[in-house]
Structures are given as structure tokens and as C-alpha cells.
């Protein structure tokens, strides 16, 4: 009975992942999992954690709802990992309370804008091999980026070679608009598609007319040899 009573008295979510250290900072729970060779986000993080450090590991992906059960979370440090993919709903459930999100020093080339634009947290995105495109431009203009690190968001690849190696902010300040480029590309694709359909309709009409004309001519040729009614009468 004493054992079961002890289990009931333990607060839910007070366990600590075996590869991490759980402590307190300014009276709030902190889970420290730095440099633990983690390849994914631990599943058993306490629900009442406020500060979560997962930096300097080998995490490659942030799946959907990765932190949804951590309603008290205010800071996440995922810097210096090997993150390549971030799902659109990766930070669902923590967007309202999150104050800081560090994704710097990873392998992120692109990111769904819906994954970040709902966040009110200050973002650190520097030192990633970014592909400069419309989605990244929208994140830069609409998300809350750390002003101290925004100039370190560099174009690793881009639609034009002249942008490669330059800070994205510098490229945009020069008047480049990646979203308008994408819109022009979409417009051209739609025009080509419409032209192709129009050409197919014209070709069908031409073939239909020729077929009917050929059938009519053949029908007239078949009727010519027939003797007239007057000849029969004579």
C-alpha cells in the first residue's frame, strides 16, 4: 500500500529522459540534453519543462507534434544538430508560449513557412545551407528573427549564381523578390498549358472537318455512276 501511495504522490511528467539531466533554472524546470549523441527528440520529456536544450546532437528531423504535450515550454535550443527536415506542424501546441527557438548550425535548406510563421518566438536560423526562395523570404519578413543573427542567413543556393554566398537580407535589400520570380514562373506555366489545350482543340476541329469533308466527297463519288430516272424511262 505504501508503494502504491508513493506512485500516486509522484507528479505526472516528473521523470527525466535517461540521456538528459533535469534541473531548475529560476524556479522553472530545465531539461538539458546537450551533446548526448541523440538522433531524435526524446519521447519522455517532462510535461512541465520550460527550458529544453537539445543542442550539439545528431537529430535530423523535427516531426509533426514533436513538442505538443509540452505546454509550458518557453525555450528550445536545437542548434548544432544535423536537422534537414522540419514538418509543417513541428511546433504545433507550443506556438503561443514559445519565446526562443534556436535552429542555427544545422543542415536546413528549406522550411515550410507554416512551421514558423505561427510562432511568436525569437528565431535563430543562421549558419544553415539555405536555398533562397519565396518561402524563406516570407519567413524573413514575417517571423520574429533574432536581429543579431539575421545577417548570418546566407544563400547557399539560389535561382541565380550571383546570389550564392551572399546574406539573404543583402540580396533582398538590392531589390530581388523571389516570390515575384515564382509568380512569373507559374504564369508562364499556366500560359503554356492553356496554349497546349487550345492547340489540341484547334487540331481536333480541323481533323473533324476534314474527316466530314472526305466522307461527303466519297459519298458523292458513289452516287455519280447511278443512272438517272429519266434514262430508265427512255
Automatic annotation (TrEMBL):
Pfam families: LRR_8 (PF13855), LRRNT (PF01462). The chain crosses the membrane at residues 188-209. Residues 15-51 form the LRRNT domain. Keywords: Leucine-rich repeat, Membrane, Repeat, Signal, Transmembrane, Transmembrane helix. The keyword Signal applies. Its main location: membrane. Residues 1-22 form the signal peptide. The keyword Cytoplasm does not apply. It is a single-pass membrane protein. InterPro entries: Leu-rich_rpt, Leu-rich_rpt_typical-subtyp, LRR_dom_sf, LRR_TM_domain-containing, LRRNT. GO terms for cellular component: plasma membrane. It is found in: Membrane. Belongs to the LRRC3 family. This is Leucine-rich repeat-containing protein 3. It comes from Notiomystis cincta. The gene is Lrrc3.
